[in-house]
């Protein structure tokens, strides 16, 4: 094959690639861009679950680990968004058309601060906006998931839900012996005795352990107090149940941690019956279109499992330092 034919084939290949590229871009941007941009301005879309002309019940889904990662990574844009969830709770309170709220909780918990922020928003819905809040528990509603559920007017768990795990955990790794074995040396310069507390390069001292244990005990006391107030239980009973173990939904109903067992549909029916809202309209808050979420999903679909490694790296970067968690981990 002579040079002219090679050149012709090369040009044809380039034209083919350009044609496919233009065709893809054309299909992307002919999908009513104006409408898509309008949608980006709407933070919440209301998907009607049950039609009705009476009162209005809003369902908010709480899925994933409760953690404010504050990351700009495209690949982490489709997970739990803490600020967005708080905004949804605020929106449900301020929306005068909403009469009641159901939280669909499916989380193993997460950060102490983040869990407390959600808890406070739930209480605000009840006290400042005078709106009942019911909780429908999914597969898991443990630790921080139970913390945010505790103040609800009614908690409904599936019989097989894993809930409970009442307590606080703080963990770190200690690589000292491994480093010694492979000749790795750590150099630490610090301003105070406890600046490198929970350091991964050495064994924890007894005094450091006491300091951290006091912190965890204080946070646990806050957790207990939330349940005492939310569930109208005695402190002794809460501490008896709150030894860190998980309970099934059935067990939780027996020991008073939840009010009833049932599904999300059962929870909706209970709220309708309890407040005589037989003709209530039920909507579910869906997040509006977000460009970074769209691009993140697209990248994941293109590169598949390779993005899991990037996700893990990002989570490790976000969790460089040890922190106290209301978290159920297996």
UniProtKB/TrEMBL annotation:
The keyword Transferase does not apply. Residues 128-274 form the Peptidase S49 domain. Pfam families: Peptidase_S49. Keywords: Hydrolase, Protease, Serine protease. Gene3D superfamilies: 2-enoyl-CoA Hydratase, Chain A, domain 1. Transmembrane segments: none annotated. InterPro entries: ClpP/crotonase-like_dom_sf, Pept_S49_SppA, Peptidase_S49, S49_SppA_C. SUPFAM superfamilies: ClpP/crotonase (SSF52096). Belongs to the peptidase S49 family. This is Signal peptide peptidase SppA. The gene is sppA.
């Amino acid at each position: 094959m002579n040079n002219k034919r090679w050149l012709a084939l090369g040009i044809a290949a380039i034209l083919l690639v350009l044609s496919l590229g233009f065709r893809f871009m054309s299909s992307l941007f002919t999908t009513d861009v104006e409408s898509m941009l309008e949608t980006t301005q709407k933070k919440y879309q209301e998907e009607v679950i049950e039609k009705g002309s009476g009162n209005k019940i809003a369902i908010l889904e709480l899925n994933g680990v409760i953690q404010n990662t504050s990351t700009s990574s495209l690949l982490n844009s489709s997970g739990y968004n803490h600020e967005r969830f708080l905004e949804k709770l605020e929106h449900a309170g301020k929306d005068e058309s909403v009469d009641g709220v159901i939280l669909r909780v499916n989380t193993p918990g997460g950060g102490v601060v983040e869990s407390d922020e959600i808890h406070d928003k739930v209480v605000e819905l009840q006290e400042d906006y005078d709106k009942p809040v019911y909780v429908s528990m999914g597969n898991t509603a443990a630790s921080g998931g139970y913390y945010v559920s505790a103040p609800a007017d009614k908690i409904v768990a599936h019989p097989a839900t894993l809930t409970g795990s009442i307590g606080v955990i703080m963990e770190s790794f200690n690589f000292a012996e491994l480093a010694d074995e492979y000749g790795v040396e750590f150099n630490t310069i610090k301003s105070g005795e406890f600046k490198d507390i929970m350091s991964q390069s050495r064994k924890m001292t007894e005094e450091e352990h006491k300091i951290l244990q006091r912190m965890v005990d204080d946070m646990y006391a806050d957790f207990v107090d939330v349940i005492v107030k939310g569930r109208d239980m005695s402190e002794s009973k809460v501490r008896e149940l709150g030894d860190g173990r998980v309970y099934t939904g059935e067990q939780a109903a027996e020991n008073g941690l939840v009010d009833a067992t049932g599904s999300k549909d059962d929870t909706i029916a209970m709220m309708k019956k309890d407040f005589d809202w037989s003709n209530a309209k039920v909507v579910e808050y869906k997040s509006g279109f977000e460009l970074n979420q769209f691009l993140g999903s697209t990248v994941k679909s293109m590169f598949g499992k390779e993005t899991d490694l990037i996700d893990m790296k990002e989570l490790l970067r976000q969790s460089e330092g040890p922190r106290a968690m209301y978290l159920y981990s297996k």
